[in-house]
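hey can u check if this looks right to u? its 465 residues, i copy pasted from the old doc so theres a chance i mangled smth
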Amino acid sequence: MFDTATYRRRRSALVKELATRGEERGLAVFIGNGESPMNYADNTYPFRQDSSFLYFFGIRKPGLAATIDLETGKATLYGDDLSMDDIVWTGPEPKVAELADGAGAEASRPRADLAAAAERSGRLLWLPPYRDETRRELAALAGVPIGEVDALSSTPLIRSALALREIKEEAEIAELEAAVATTVDMHRAAMAMARPGLRESDLAARVTEVAIADGGGLSFPVIATVRGATLHNHRHDGLLEAGQLFLLDAGAETPSGYAGDLTSTFPVSPAYDARQKAIYEIVLSMGRAAASRVKPGAPYAEAHDAAADAGVRGLSALGLMRGDPAEAVARGAHALFFPHGVGHMVGLDVHDMENYGERWVGYDGAARSDQFGRKSLRLAKPLRAGMVLTIEPGLYFIPELIAAWKAEGRFADFIDYKAAEAYVGFGGIRNEEDWLVTQTGGRRLGPDFDKSVAAIEAIRRKGGA
């Protein structure tokens, strides 16, 4: 939790932002997350507070809600103090009034009083919910059918909260640096440990240990796999074998909730083989090309296209593609090998503010492409100094996709399918870094983490390979 003044300042800024969008009365309602049972009420998943609630109030306790009165700027926290029966099991916790003081809220009330406050106001603004229990409560507070809650989310509130959250304060950047530092330790630990005969789950457990030992936890479920052609493979039941590539997409979350998000792809053997090295170095070149486009005012779509162009040029040099790279990218031929976007924003969420909707978060309300591959680009709009984002190019050889496109004859003028089929079984390579947009360009966050072939192989030879 930051200092009290931070949360007061953020709420005041939100009220001012809303006023510029014509919203000067009513209550902005923030429903904090509750405990979520795994299989019965007292056996819960690890608690994670709603990120918007964290940003504007900073309190990591379940069962809370808050409002901001847009006319007065007054913030009220709603919650219930622990009973003696609760304290026996959990130990003492701060009272709701104490939590309100820490967040700089002007008042605190029992949780049940929120309904009466909503009725008195008669006008509520809320952000898009992502949990059914939040959706149900908002429906009851607003007196609307539950099926209409999402559509009635306040666009001015979305845009106002986005305008604040997407520009990171210095204290937030420090948190993100810490998250990336722990994330680097996670990746180095996996590289040092990996060897033939281990299970994917062994490495997943190791990186989870590092994250928790640093006082926080995971920022998202770990991807730790020798089946890198599957973009989001959360299964950990495979065995590591010599000659394979291991793809690790994992990040740490700090105790305050800020996320790191890195991906590394390294050989299970002590060194990359010739084909692995060639593809890996193309992916690194794609990252450099994207990073060169990171600066204020530049649409992030340009970074995506730069990465795709570098990928086409590299694949063409290997005989996998041909033709004009710019035309190949414009038509989407590269997406056979690079079927996702080059990055997304990072902050209190690993996909920052994703519940606000990518229409605003990634596109400022502009239309999104429906082209395969490009439609998965989460961030395309012009960059602003203070944004934090990922650069995560990748090249993958997906057997089913190669077979389907070959059968259709799709982009046969750009793709050598015979050459592509020779890579079936290769897997995939992704490299991901977290970057801050500065006043003049971009800066990679976290400690130095050399991802060159020589550096990765040095770790592998020193480690368990």
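The domain at 4-165 is CATH 3.40.350.10 (Creatine Amidinohydrolase; Chain A, domain 1).
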